[in-house]
């Protein structure tokens, strides 16, 4: 089955088995291995990418569902020589330890900060409304879909809060 979308601003066309997930299409067919496969069941967030600006667990989503979409992966945010502000703050705050969850954390935070700026409700709780400035507890709740086995959570939240200010 053919599917065409843009990945990190580049037009890509694939001929895929319709059962292939977006995560496997990115990693195995487009060689974009920054998005990680942790649980493959929508529970860890390591595979988070943006689809049309919204956070998606790419392990739960079939690639062929995204015809015409704009997909952004960690490779589309910055380069090792030119990190984007959030990537830079993760470095400054030691917002990672083993690093496996980091691409998903950064992609999720990127989408979350955009949601907050738009005033969109948290995907976790309708009681939260977006603010320009997010409390530590709000960041924790909005990022609760991204697990860090090393428990670098305080450093991750600090990195995010620096960009949110
Ligand atoms: Fe997708 Fe864990 S690999 S949520």
Automatic annotation (TrEMBL):
SUPFAM superfamilies: 2Fe-2S ferredoxin-like (SSF54292), CO dehydrogenase ISP C-domain like (SSF47741). Keywords: Iron, Metal-binding, Oxidoreductase. The keyword DNA-binding does not apply. It comes from the Bacteria. Pfam families: Fer2, Fer2_2. Gene3D superfamilies: 3.10.20.30, [2Fe-2S]-binding domain. Residues 1-77 form the 2Fe-2S ferredoxin-type domain. PANTHER family: OXIDOREDUCTASE, IRON-SULPHUR BINDING SUBUNIT-RELATED-RELATED (PTHR45331). This is Aldehyde dehydrogenase iron-sulfur subunit. It comes from Thioclava sediminum.
């Amino acid at each position: 089955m053919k599917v065409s979308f843009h990945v990190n601003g580049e037009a890509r066309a694939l001929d895929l088995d319709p059962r292939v997930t977006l995560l496997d299409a990115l990693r195995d067919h487009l060689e974009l291995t920054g998005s990680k496969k942790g649980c493959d069941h929508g529970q860890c967030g390591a595979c988070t990418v943006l689809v049309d600006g919204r956070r998606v667990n790419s392990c739960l989503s079939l690639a062929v569902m995204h015809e015409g979409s704009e997909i952004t992966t960690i490779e589309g945010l910055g380069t090792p020589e030119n990190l984007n502000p959030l990537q830079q703050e993760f470095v400054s705050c030691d917002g990672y330890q083993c690093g496996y969850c980091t691409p998903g954390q950064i992609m999720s935070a990127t989408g979350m900060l955009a949601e907050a700026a738009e005033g969109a409700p948290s995907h976790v709780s309708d009681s939260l409304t977006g603010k320009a400035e997010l409390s530590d507890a709000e960041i924790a709740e909005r990022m609760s879909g991204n697990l860090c086995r090393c428990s670098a959570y305080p450093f991750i939240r600090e990195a995010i809060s620096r960009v949110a200010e």
